[in-house]
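// run 5 | inverse folding | seed 20
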């Protein structure tokens, strides 16, 4: 179960007043949660009651596809076939770190109420800080964190993730956030953190999409099963 705060559990803190959802396919649901702070959109791949769940967040502008030409969709489809659920989080207020961390934590809370027990958080660019923040906020259920071309701002307390595994992936030709951002994160997160540099890759990591998918399709299930 996702941790409660003195004010309530993460989903309760959203102050939602309506929820709509449709089944896009048997293994994909589109969920819209209307709140006082904006619309939270979730694309939920896999079984609703899956015990292992991956939470994915976009960059400062939001978005649900992720980098590398739709990475998040492809991972969601692949993980669903392995019995791992994936929730792609469309933030209520993109680029507002505290609110976006709450969005990811609320998605974890929803999944926990349905049966989720072990979570990996994953985020691209600004979303890397969201994934780190959610991992810090939910220490008993988040078992691993992945960042893709992350910013370092918002990751200052990454030592609180230790000894959980962290995988930081960055392109060596990132034109927006230099690879040193991921190097700083890995140094803060301690000996269980790993840095993967993708050669010739810019901020969207498109030049190494196949390599990126292969690594994540190995790393995430292994961490969830550990």
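// decoded
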């Amino acid at each position: 179960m996702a941790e409660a705060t003195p004010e309530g559990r993460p989903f309760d803190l959203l102050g939602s007043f309506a929820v709509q959802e449709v089944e896009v396919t048997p293994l994909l649901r589109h969920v819209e949660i209307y709140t006082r702070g904006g619309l939270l959109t979730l694309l939920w791949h896999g079984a609703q009651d899956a015990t292992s769940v991956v939470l994915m967040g976009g960059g400062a502008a939001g978005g649900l596809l992720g980098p590398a030409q739709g990475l998040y969709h492809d991972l969601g489809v692949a993980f669903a076939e392995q019995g791992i659920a994936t929730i792609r989080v469309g933030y209520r207020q993109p680029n507002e770190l505290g609110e976006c961390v709450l969005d990811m934590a609320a998605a974890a809370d929803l999944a926990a109420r349905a049966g989720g027990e072990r979570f990996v958080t994953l985020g691209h660019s600004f979303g890397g800080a969201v994934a780190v923040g959610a991992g810090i906020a939910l220490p008993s259920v988040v078992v691993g964190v992945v960042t893709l071309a992350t910013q370092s701002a918002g990751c200052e307390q990454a030592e609180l993730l230790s000894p959980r595994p962290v995988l930081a992936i960055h392109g060596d030709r990132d034109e927006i956030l230099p690879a040193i951002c991921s190097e700083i994160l890995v140094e803060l997160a301690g000996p269980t953190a790993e840095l993967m540099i993708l050669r010739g890759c810019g901020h969207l990591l498109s030049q190494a999409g196949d390599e990126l998918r292969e690594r994540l399709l190995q790393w995430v299930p292994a961490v969830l099963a550990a």
